[in-house]
């Protein structure tokens, strides 16, 4: 009799892992991505990632547009830092054309690019706080982003879809009071940076959620092709701005923060430190830049002045040719890469010598991050998906193209 | 007999509807909307107006309520209709029933009040009349705990009956969390029970009128500081508010067991959460912060360092002291609720396993240690 009592316990009561569809419309999977999770209790044992819910056909769209008309499309790639995409694309086309842009243009691109990086990192840090329940930290960071966007709006005329870059130059110069307004924004940003540090960095709950979760090893980061903060948090100090300087990054002094463990906390700290570095870069640029032209005078790409358009036949023809047929880019191919908000943003461009691109391929850092994201989720808890997915900072527009 | 029933009804009406619902309701507005907007550098709700008046966004709150009443009641396909409807009731009812034993003031004395040398108030030449709590129960604390424990059924049933995996996870989390923290909650109070020697909440409040060395009020927080923190933490976890709001952790499991609820069912559950927040604040106030006691203020005058004077004459002072003490109790509750809201808007959310670790590996051993030390001291003295 006594043995019979224990029998039912030894038997395997029917149990199976639960399959949970997380996304595409789920509060945590912002930017529309779907995870098919296999859960054992709350432990994730398997994760299948499905991207592409925001696919707009960016690369195909570009083939139907002139080289200049591609700029608005690039705005929609990483919509948290559209200026970086603008400049990345402009740089690629300029390399293919083999033209140099004026000195001041490079300075402004550096400044505006770093402003975009500020907005990107502030959004990422704030959203991370929000998703962990610290809504207050989110709203403080968003205040900083608003200030940055006010500056961007002042210069470009738009907050999100800026379309500020041009082949061989920029849409506009900085406004005369830019330095003044930057001084105010800068002061406020530093305050917000300090407040965020106080609210989160030594917060025990925040540390428990972030430390040791979503760990990327340096080997994994390199082999999956991770770049940007995701790679730097593992200790690999690869930053395009430092290793392959473009614009004026070679002439300014800044540090590349690296992490040790590659966990969420390191990614958070790297972003926090990059905020400071971006502010440093902008300060130096404003001190070093001089007045001058912002657009190249190469007649192949530069629109003639309105005076010439209205008064000379050559000017008018040139204007029409550039607007209707597009800038004539010589046949060839180029791979040009810059440091985007999330990592190496590469444009691989093939031209067949006409006014429209033959092929544009974007190496979007977010898509590459999503390639290995299941490795970060598996073995962790369901709740760990939240900080991990936030700190890799996947942006749907860029990932799904 | 009829008079007593009538008095009870009036008390229920005033306390449950007038105080608890009003405070809980207003908290959704002032606590959750206006206070959070102040913390977060925002304006907060200010658009909704009645006749052009939008005081503190109160019309916004009324509009919200109206919206919730008028919305379509959705029961998801495959859900258990009966249990799905029952769950909000099971959550809301305990949050309100618990108020039956909370004393807002000492019993009313028909005779004259006197304070002994031990700072105990006695009623001479008359009898106590219970006018300031719905029901006088000498095991009030046990009653409060027993009732509070029922609400876990509501959450668990809501999670199961919704036929959604997110709800189920939320229901599981809330059951686990509430059961775990009840243990620490109970044990953290065991020490204070040894000192007071009673389960009667009003009696506890009365005992806290004692002045140690004639100046230090012997509130529960003075004699049991550790228990105060443990109870406060466990109480917050019990109410499932941030940073312990992982049963409805918005980011990973959508809204937990609330995911499939709409209309007043949802509002009822939300209201229950606020009511529970206020209830925990009331319990803490009574057990640890002197309840209705104000230091140095007694029913028969003001006493400090052996000085004793009676402003406005004895009978008038008795009425004044009652007025002051009821408001002191309400003030304490509001301060504690405010504190919980400040924490809610400052701290991030725990992870499920971290909450369990905190409950079982930190709070529970500390509660037991606190109990042992207290028992030792009580025995030796």
Q: Count up the helices of chain A.
A: 18
Helix content of chain A: 40-55%
Q: Number of folding domains of chain B?
A: 1
The CATH superfamily name of the largest domain in chain A is Cytochrome-c3 Hydrogenase, chain B
The secondary-structure class of chain A comes to mainly alpha
Our measurement of the CA-to-CA distance between the termini of chain B, rounded to an integer number of angstroms, reads: 46 Å
Write a short abstract of this structure.
The complex is a heterodimer of chains A (401) and B (381). Chain A is mainly alpha-helical. Chain A has two domains: 31 residues, no CATH class; 352 residues, Orthogonal Bundle (Cytochrome-c3 Hydrogenase, chain B).
Task: Pick out its properties.
heterodimer, A: 401 residues, mainly alpha, Cytochrome-c3 Hydrogenase, chain B, three-stranded antiparallel β-sheet, 18 helices, 8 strands, 11% strand, B: 381 residues, two-stranded antiparallel sheet, 11 helices, 9 strands, 7% strand, globular
Layout: helices, strands, pairs:
The complex is a heterodimer of chains A (401) and B (381).
Chain A (H helix, E strand, L loop, with lengths): L1 H9 L7 E5 L11 E7 L2 E8 L7 H6 L6 H6 L6 H16 L5 H29 L3 H22 L8 E2 L2 E2 L7 H24 L2 H7 L7 H6 L4 H5 L7 H4 L20 H25 L17 H6 L1 H13 L6 E8 L4 E8 L7 E5 L1 H7 L1 H5 L7 H7 L4 H5 L1
Antiparallel strand pairs in A: 1-2, 2-3, 4-5, 6-7, 7-8
Chain B lengths: L1 H38 L18 H13 L10 H17 L10 E2 L2 E4 L5 E4 L3 E2 L10 H22 L3 H32 L4 H7 L3 E2 L3 E2 L2 H4 L1 H14 L24 H26 L8 E2 L2 E4 L2 E3 L4 H31 L7 H29 L1
Antiparallel strand pairs in B: 1-4, 2-3, 5-6, 7-8, 8-9
Helix pairs in contact in B: 1-9, 2-9, 3-4, 3-9, 4-5, 5-8, 5-11, 8-9, 8-11, 9-10
Family (chain A): Belongs to the complex I 49 kDa subunit family.
Protein name (chain A): NADH-quinone oxidoreductase subunit D
Catalytic activity (chain A): a quinone + NADH + 5 H(+)(in) = a quinol + NAD(+) + 4 H(+)(out)
């Amino acid at each position: 009799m006594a043995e019979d009592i224990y029998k039912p316990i030894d038997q395997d009561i029917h149990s199976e892992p639960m399959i949970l569809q997380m996304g595409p419309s789920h509060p945590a999977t912002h930017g529309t991505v779907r995870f098919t999770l296999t859960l054992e209790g709350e432990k994730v044992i398997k994760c299948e990632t499905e991207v592409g819910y925001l696919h707009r056909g960016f690369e195909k769209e570009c083939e139907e547009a002139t080289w200049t008309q591609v700029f608005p499309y690039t705005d929609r790639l990483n919509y948290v830092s559209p200026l970086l995409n603008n400049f990345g694309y402009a740089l690629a086309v300029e390399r293919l054309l083999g033209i140099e842009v004026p000195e001041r243009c490079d300075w402004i691109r550096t400044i505006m690019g770093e402003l975009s990086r500020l907005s990107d990192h502030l959004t990422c840090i704030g959203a991370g706080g929000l998703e962990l329940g610290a809504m207050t930290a989110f709203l403080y960071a968003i205040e900083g982003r608003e200030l940055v966007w006010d500056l961007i709006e002042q210069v470009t005329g738009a907050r999100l879809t800026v379309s500020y870059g041009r082949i061989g130059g920029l849409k506009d110069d900085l406004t005369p009071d830019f330095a003044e307004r930057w001084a105010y924004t800068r002061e406020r940003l530093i305050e917000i940076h300090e407040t965020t540090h106080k609210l989160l960095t030594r917060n025990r709950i925040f540390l428990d959620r972030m430390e040791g979760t979503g760990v990327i090893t340096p080997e994994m980061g390199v082999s999956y092709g991770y770049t940007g903060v995701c790679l730097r948090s593992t200790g690999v100090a690869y930053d395009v701005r430092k290793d392959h300087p473009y614009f004026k990054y070679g002439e300014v002094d800044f540090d590349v923060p690296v992490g040790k463990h590659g966990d969420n906390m390191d990614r958070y700290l790297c972003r926090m430190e990059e905020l400071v570095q971006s502010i440093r870069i902008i300060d130096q640029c404003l001190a070093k830049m001089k007045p001058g032209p912002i657009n190249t005078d190469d007649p192949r790409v530069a629109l003639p002045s309105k005076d010439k358009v209205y008064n000379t036949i050559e000017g008018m023809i040139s204007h029409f040719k550039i607007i209707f047929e597009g800038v004539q880019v010589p046949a060839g191919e180029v791979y040009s890469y810059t440091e985007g908000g999330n990592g190496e943003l590469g444009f691989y461009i093939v031209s067949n010598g006409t006014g429209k691109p033959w092929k544009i391929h974007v190496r979007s850092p977010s898509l590459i991050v999503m390639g290995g994201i299941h490795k970060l989720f598996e073995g962790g808890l369901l709740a760990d998906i939240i900080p991990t997915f936030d700190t890799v900072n996947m942006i749907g527009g860029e990932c799904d193209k | 007999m009829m008079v007593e029933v009538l008095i009870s009804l009036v008390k229920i009406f005033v306390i449950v509807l007038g105080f608890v619902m009003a405070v809980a309701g207003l908290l959704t507005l002032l606590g959750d909307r206006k206070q959070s907007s102040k913390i977060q550098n925002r304006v907060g709700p200010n658009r909704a107006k009645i006749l052009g008046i939008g005081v503190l966004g109160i019309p916004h709150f009324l509009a919200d309520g109206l919206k919730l009443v008028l919305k379509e009641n959705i029961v998801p396909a495959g859900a258990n209709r009966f249990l799905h409807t029952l769950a909000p009731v099971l959550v809301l009812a305990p949050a309100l029933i618990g108020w039956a034993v909370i004393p807002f003031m000492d019993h009313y004395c028909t005779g004259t009040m006197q304070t002994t040398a031990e700072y105990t108030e006695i009623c001479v030449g008359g009898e106590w009349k219970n006018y300031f709590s719905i029901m006088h129960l000498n095991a009030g604390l046990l009653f409060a705990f027993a009732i509070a424990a029922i609400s876990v059924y509501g959450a668990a049933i809501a999670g199961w009956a919704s036929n959604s995996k997110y709800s189920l996870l939320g229901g599981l989390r809330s059951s686990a969390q509430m059961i775990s923290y009840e243990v620490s909650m109970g044990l953290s109070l065991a020490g204070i029970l040894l000192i007071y020697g009673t389960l009667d909440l009003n009696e506890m409040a009365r005992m806290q009128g004692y002045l140690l060395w004639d100046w230090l009020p012997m509130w529960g927080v003075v004699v049991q500081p550790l228990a105060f923190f443990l109870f406060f933490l466990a109480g917050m976890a019990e109410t499932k508010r941030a940073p312990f709001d992982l049963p409805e952790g918005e980011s990973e499991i959508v809204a937990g067991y609330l995911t499939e609820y709409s209309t007043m069912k949802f509002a009822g559950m939300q209201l229950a959460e606020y009511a529970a927040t206020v209830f925990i604040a009331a319990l803490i106030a009574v057990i640890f912060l002197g309840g209705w006691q104000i230091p140095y203020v007694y029913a028969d005058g003001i006493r400090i360092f052996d000085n004793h004077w009676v402003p406005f004459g004895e009978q008038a002072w008795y009425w004044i002291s009652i007025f002051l003490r009821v408001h002191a109790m309400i003030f304490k509750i509001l301060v504690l609720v405010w504190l919980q809201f400040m924490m809610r808007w400052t701290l991030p959310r725990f992870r499920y396993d971290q909450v369990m670790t905190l409950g079982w590996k930190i709070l529970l051993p500390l509660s037991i240690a606190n109990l042992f030390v207290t028992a030792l001291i009580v025995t030796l003295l």
